[in-house]
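Exam review. A common question shows you a sequence with its structure tokens and asks you to describe the fold in words. Practice with the pair below. Do the first one on your own.
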Amino acid sequence: RHRFDFSFSGLKTAVARWVEAREAAGEPVPVADVAASFQEAVADTLTRKAVRACQIHDIETLVVVGGVVLIAWMRRAYANLPALAVGDLRFSARWVVWGWLVPIVNLFRPKQIMDDLWRASHPLAPPFSSSWRLGPGSFWCHLWWWGLLLGAALGLAGHDLIASNAARSVR
């Protein structure tokens, strides 16, 4: 096995056995804590191995692409809403993808779609009705969207700053 392989089968097995042991003992399983711990272990391992690989191979820039996976998940989840008895969707599943790609529209459509996913998948949303739209929004959806927009703005500003410093050093 190569030292930069990303396999988490051992971690998954350990977590599954730990959960099974807790359940067999009749103890509650702190699902949120287990999920957060698993996520932290995976993120730490991925980060450590990626940074180390960059150092060894003298790579100065590492680009992490998660947006494609998010868009694929959002499209599939939105397309599945009718199967969950959610009626009267505002957009077609195609707009999940196009909403990210069309200028100006990409500043609000992905957030609208994520809000729809949040509200429509709520356990108390009435089936085959459009009243699910009246459900409460999510603080997490707002935080995600504003964090994404802020990150993009800071990334663009940082890129411009680096480019202007590079231009000055050439003169």
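Now try the second one, then compare your answer with the model answer below.
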Amino acid sequence: KSPSKLDMSRILSMNEYYIKNIDENELFSQLTKYCEIYKEKIPNEKGVKVKSSLPFLKNKAKTLEDIYKNSKYIIQNKVTINQDDIKLIDNKAKKIVTEFSNNISKIENLNKENIEPIINDLIKTNETNFKGVGQPLRIFLTGSKFGPGIYDIISSLGKEEVLKRLGSNIT
């Protein structure tokens, strides 16, 4: 018989299951401790947003590091756009983001029900698809074309922060 082997993919798979099923208060406590030791302390006002966003931040996460990476856009005040992603921002993308920003500034509560019609209208008027609207928004809001869903990003940041990030990045 051969000796047992350490199988990291199996361990990560078990950890992913554990993360999905753990109580979110306990998960947030673990994440907070992890960040204090290995990253940066999560400021209290950002912690509230991270905690309420855990249901989608933990999606596909296998480790606390994955959750931290998914939540970095909430924790950090300034968005640094990845150089490869800057190339994806053309004049059409800037126009779409400006129109989106103007439309949401008129809305009181940002939620999927209020944002979806705006995005669908932008898709029609700019003759593009969801990616043509969602990708530039995600890049401006998080600094990367990868990350949580656009509706989750917007609701987790809140109206004031979304408008601030879109306004400062379009120019």
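Model answer, second protein: The radius of gyration is 18 Å. The chain has a mean pLDDT of 91. Full marks require stating both points clearly.
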